[in-house]
Amino acid sequence: MHPITRLSLIAGLLLAIGAAALLLQTWVGMAAPPEAPAPVGAPADPHRREYEHRQQLAAATLSLLALAGITAAAVLPRPWARPTGDGAARQGVELLARAAATQSEALARERDVRHRTEENLAMEQMRAGQAVADKVRLGRDLHDGMIQSLYATGLTLTAARGKITAEPARAAELLDRGVELLNATIRDMRAAIGGLSAARQQEQSFPAAVGLVLEMLSSGRAVVFDTRLDAEAAARVGEGQCADLLQIIREAVSNALRHGAAHTVTVRLNEDQGNLCLLVQDDGRGFDPDRAPAVGQGLGNLRARAELLRGELGVTSRPGAGTRVVLTFPVPAAAP
Description:
Layout: H1 3-29, H2 46-75, H3 87-162, H4 168-193, H5 197-201, H6 206-217, E1 224-229, H7 231-235, H8 239-258, E2 264-272, E3 275-282, H9 298-308, E4 312-317, E5 323-330
Parallel strand pairs: 1-2
Antiparallel strand pairs: 2-3, 3-5, 4-5
């Protein structure tokens, strides 16, 4: 065989391998999945499976082509002057190895870039979700905590104004109490913004925290609280449950005083068959649940906090018969 013909065959073989590599890379790129990562818990994306399958096929095909080129270069007679020379075969093998390595590196770089992009998108989604959760938490805490505290402060100041002339000493006490409530509300607002409310509540027992909530809400009102918190049940309230449980009590009692004009409010906490049961009941004017206006955040916040506790919330009421709020939620598992 003429040397020129042999060289042409080897060059054509190299060009064919290069063209096949480019076609394979294009074929793999056509199956690339969308940029956005799948949500957590979603089933496997069929586009991604197809993309990874094509990458594997492309890598295997390139390996076979490289092996075929090496075999062809070794089998074809060498075009050099001496039949015993091995320079042309060695050069052909090196060219084939470089072409295969270049294509493999390109595919690896593409995979790395896509993986980094997916990780960055997942991180951005996580940050956005956390920002939304923080906003919802802050809005719920403002409604259930600070707004109710400010309402109690307003009642205290109103009561003080009515006693300035007849009972100045009592009016002064109520004004001092109003200032204390305002300072406490400011501290709670700062704690809520900084996410420190739970840490502050852990510094005192659950019954003591309930007592402070009821004392704050009762300022300026002639109301009797019948509170019975089972000691063992209160001790089993988890650190992660305390904040939501206190806010549920605050919201239910505030509604009884503000909207129901209740004179007696009953608060109970018991344990029954692995569940904790909270009861808040009043003797106020009650309401018709079917005709209650669908406005405000109170009942919605109660249900949202019940879901956070993985509990069941029941609200029953009728005009003239008061309101009964019952929350049943599981006792938290003991720490290992």
